[in-house]
Amino acid sequence: MKDEFKKENCVSFCEVLHALSAKSSMDNILSEACIFAGYNSIERIYIGSNFCSQYFLSCQSETLSQLALLCQKKNIKITLCIPIISEKNLLEAKGLIEKLYLSFNNLIDETTVNDYAMAIYIARKYPDQKINLGRLFQKDTRDIRYPEYFSDKIVPSTLAYDFHKLVGITINSVEFDPTNSTIDLSGLKCVPAIYTPYCFATVGNICEYASIGKQFNEKFRPNADCTLNCQRNVIRYFYNDNTQYLKVGRAVFFKNLDWTITGVGQYREIFEPFDVFSNMEGGYE
Amino acid sequence: MNKILVPLNSLESLFPLLDAGADEFYIGFYDDDWQEEFGKYSEVNRMSGFRERANKLNFGELLQVVRCIKEQNRDVFITFNGATYSNDELQKIENYFEKLSESGADGVIISVPQLADIAIKYNLEPVASTMCAIYNSDLVKFYGDLGVKRMILPRDLSIAEIEHIVSNNSQIEYEVFLMRNGCQFSDSYCLGFHRPECGSMCGMLNHAPKQIFSTKSDFETQHEVELNEMLYSNVFHHFAACGLCALYRFVKMGITAYKIVGRAENFNGIVEDIGLIKENINIALKCKTEGEFLNAMKMIPASRQACKLGMGCYYPEIRF
Questions:
Q1: pLDDT for B85-112, tens place per residue?
Q2: Which pTM value belongs to this model?
Q3: Residues of A179-189 as b/e, b for ≥16 C-beta within 10 angstroms?
Q4: What is the b/e burial string over B72-100, where b = at least 16 CB atoms within 10 angstroms of the residue's CB?
Q5: Do B316 and A202 touch (CB under 8 A)?
């Protein structure tokens, strides 16, 4: 049913770019992502982070420059995703945003924000940037443990909010998670983007992975500086035979392969290659 | 400044809580009409899934309790901190606001910016809930521009970040979390149900069978990763959370109110917490240095277990 729509194929390298680049070249990563996602080609990639200030600040490596060159060569557009930046990193993050826009020339043609204040900041400081509302704006409950609720059709309450009235800016796209079996987007005035195959369930400012290797009395601190252990470790949780959760960085996700959208004629699909972690060494149970 | 904000679940609790030293109250409610209109999974506030177990008052009873609190010249705030609301739900909430305003309620604790305007329209003070995820100074400004003058900061901010936000935006009144339930995730973005059928997301994850995948398989790495996971799932915030050691800093910052969470918690525990906070605020006000305060302050009764390694602390960096 999803294929009946006009679809733009996108891949998100948010949260996992360093993990991917440690395994292979950027060219291979793009090709593998296409195969995993079942795409013939990729029209857009997403970089940055939707969930973590620390990961976002790490997005200034040689890897990113290589990726930019490749995108230029293959005519792939880039969306920069910005998480909610915790207070101690706010200035530094704004500096990095400026640096990324400059160093990527015009390749970054749109920015996904995840909070109202950043939406206003980007719109005022970079008026040429198109603004997307990120997945953290969609706060509808999602819980696969409740089959009755999960199998029901949901009308995201994000649709109820007049963002133009609230923040005074025009929205380019609104991003959604596959929270339920069917998502009714009737009435949406811009192109929706749907993440797949994982639905984000919970996130916080305290990162379990950031504490690996730290002294006992320094573990589990909010927004602690880290060495990106999230790129080397992942935890899979088994709720029952059919339901698994995956903790990627600070966020926990569940898989939903069978979502459907209604009420729109076209959409973006944003594939998240989290299954790259699945061939890591496994052990503890 | 230095007020103690406590949950109230019944009229019978009002006077014991006042005697214990409560300065302000927040109350949630349940409404069968809401559930009938929007379905059993719709939440008027964060604890709606627990129905009367968490919010013992229906809306009619709530209005009576509000009037009684106002007779005692205390402030009372009503929680509307569901993760999100549809247009129809916002309309229904406006109807509640109208009646709350008539009853004399001081304000409403809101989770979405759309409710700020509506609250102000009915002369209710909008208080930005922790559900608003005010993690930085720019977000303080955003809500401030909507007319929100009081904000509850997330419990997953460090003391240094709280100090920075408060000093950058000193015209705002702030509430911080101080006692009882700690949280591994963000209040605002923990989007699984909090209902009795399956429990919280963090509880489920902590107890679920799991596999850890790592890029390295040597003993030392695996030991570090697995030990870290054991501590995170079994020790971190395993006991009731506490932030008493941070009181000296909060008093110096000029924090407006200290929030005791736990609408469904046991009443005697909340009374004990109020006494401890009150006593420690007084100690903090007399102390000249933080070191002096940390030596003189009163600890929680479960301190010998809960205080180990800072794993039960809201603000572990004070001592660890």
A1: 999 999 999 999 999 999 999 999 999 9
A2: 0.96
A3: bbbbbbbeebe
A4: eebbbbbbbbbbbbbeebbebbeebbeeb
A5: no
Number of residues assigned to chain A: 285
Per-residue burial over B123-149, b if 16 or more Cβ lie within 10 Å, else e, is ebbbbbbbbbbbbbbbbbbbbbebebe
Start-to-end Cα distance in chain B = 27
Question: Are B158 and A222 a contacting pair at CB < 8 A?
Answer: yes
Q: What is the spatial distance between Cα B65 and Cα B14, in angstroms, rounded to a whole number?
A: 9
**Contact across the interface for A145 and B202, Cβ inside 8 Å:** no
Interface contact A109, partner B, CB < 8 A: no
Taking the C-alpha atoms of residue A102 and residue B97, their distance in angstroms, rounded to an integer, is: 48
Strand B173-180 and strand A266-271: the pairing is unpaired
Q: Under an 8 A CB cutoff, do B136 and A117 touch?
A: yes
- The answer to whether A220 contacts B186, with C-beta atoms less than 8 Å apart, is no
Segment 203-262 of chain A within 8 Å of chain B by CB: 203-206, 208, 211-213, 216-223, 232-239, 245, 247, 252
What ipTM does the predicted assembly reach?
Answer: 0.95
How confident is the model over B32-79, as pLDDT tens digits?
A: 999 999 999 999 998 777 777 778 899 999 999 999 999 999 999 999
Asked if residue A62 lies in contact with residue A95, where contact means CB atoms within 8 angstroms, the answer is no
